[in-house]
Design a protein that fits this description.
400 residues, Transcription Regulator spoIIAA, Rossmann fold, seven-stranded mixed sheet
Length: 400
């Protein structure tokens, strides 16, 4: 086992349970890449135990604060069992078979993401430490969950910062089909776990799609960054009179239209419009034509991948929210999100407020939104709370 010694006074975050040790906190390290290491304070006292990667800005990702707990096969089995048990305790919507089983640091397994899609599991090994233990983790997941197969989608760019190549492909059992059908609150969705975004679907928006279904009745709904139509299908199921979905990917737009038909809503061709294009450009064209909607959904991709991108991301978020407010009729609803971890909830509120102010509308927050509960959040790791959202109602013109 290797040893990492911290600079004096730099042990406080780790002692408080935060799982990351950054390069600037380290005095010296006697360890090889991927080693399990003991982290010591400047006086040589045990702080925590984790795995080490000198190629990453996050040098150590902590696994345990118990000096007596060894990181061996039993450790990984206990952690996986605990993560599975947390999902058993969640009140997921009925008729749902797609959800997150392991949410990395928030489940005490930094760098590991596992999603269930019906009988298949999709795994992401995003760090060197998890890559080193991947074979064992796959074996344990097969033992504990008995899936039809386990497929790898370790194709996030964060792996390159860990000194790893991107990796995809079957890991265990039967490979999944190129498109499989999952259920979410009674609705069905075609999911491409082999080439789709993230692990195939935006599972973190499940409860927000359920909410959209509840409030969409009779509304003309604009779904921006619609991907494969999750919010569109929810709105149609909720009785939306008309939907317009905008997405830059032609393949995703085609799948969105297919998902509407999959749920028995054939014959709505005149009511549901699917547009391939840049959302910013499309929103401006709709504004210039004087279009009005009763509900707008903004679920953009991550605009800020790190703190240095926050100013430009904030401008992007303000722009799309300003355009959405311009397109909403009085009494209209805006469901708006940011999945950028670098954008704090407080900053996001300020951005949406500024957009409403510039649009000249008075807005009330109906509900504060967040990621689905299977995307667990640890109080010791606030970075795990990444998806922020607001359901807002436009109450009229703002006349100060």
């Amino acid at each position: 086992m290797g040893v990492v010694t911290l600079r004096r006074g730099r042990e406080k975050p780790a002692r408080r349970g935060h799982p990351w040790i950054f390069s600037g906190a380290i005095q010296c390290a006697d360890a090889a890449p991927g080693d399990i290491v003991d982290v010591l304070d400047a006086d040589g006292h045990f702080v925590a135990r984790g795995y080490y990667n000198p190629s990453s800005q996050i040098r150590v990702r902590l696994l345990t604060w118990d000096e007596g707990e060894r990181v061996n096969a039993d450790f990984w089995r206990r952690r996986l069992r605990a993560s599975l048990a947390r999902r058993d305790a969640l009140l997921l919507p009925p008729e749902t078979d797609a959800f997150r089983l392991v949410h990395a640091e928030s489940d005490g397994l930094p760098g590991l993401v596992v999603d269930r899609y019906g009988p298949w599991l999709v795994l992401q090994a995003l760090t060197l430490g998890i890559e080193r233990h991947k074979a064992l983790i796959v074996e344990l997941l097969a033992e504990l969950t008995r899936p039809a197969g386990i497929y790898e989608r370790s194709d996030e760019e964060v792996r390159r910062r860990e000194g790893l190549e991107l990796a995809t492909g079957p890991l265990w059992g039967e490979p999944p089909p190129s498109r499989l059908v999952v259920r979410e609150a009674g609705l069905r969705f075609l999911v491409d776990v082999i080439a789709g975004h993230k692990t195939g679907f935006y599972l973190d928006q499940r409860e927000n799609r359920v909410l959209a279904r509840r409030v969409a009745s009779g509304r003309r709904v604009l779904n921006c960054f619609s991907y494969t139509g999750g919010f569109t299908v929810a709105a149609v199921a909720g009785g939306a009179g008309e939907t317009v979905s905008v997405e830059s990917s032609e393949a995703a737009v085609a799948l969105a239209a297919e998902n509407v038909r999959l749920n028995g809503f054939a014959g709505r061709e005149a009511a549901d419009t699917f547009i391939v294009g840049d959302v910013f450009d499309v929103l401006r064209r709709l504004r210039d034509r004087g279009e009005q909607f009763d509900m707008v959904v903004l679920d953009p991709p991550k605009f800020a991948h790190h703190a240095g991108q926050v100013p430009s991301a904030a401008r992007g978020y303000k722009d799309i929210n300003w355009l959405a407010f311009r397109l909403l009729a009085p009494g209209g609803l805006l469901m708006t999100f940011s999945c950028s971890g670098a954008i704090s909830p407080d900053l996001f509120w300020k951005i949406v407020f500024a957009a409403a102010l510039d649009a000249g509308v008075r807005v009330r927050v109906v509900q504060v939104l967040h990621q689905a509960p299977d995307h667990t959040i640890s109080l010791h790791f606030p970075e795990g709370f990444y998806l922020k959202g607001l359901l807002c109602r436009v109450e009229g013109k703002f006349c100060p």
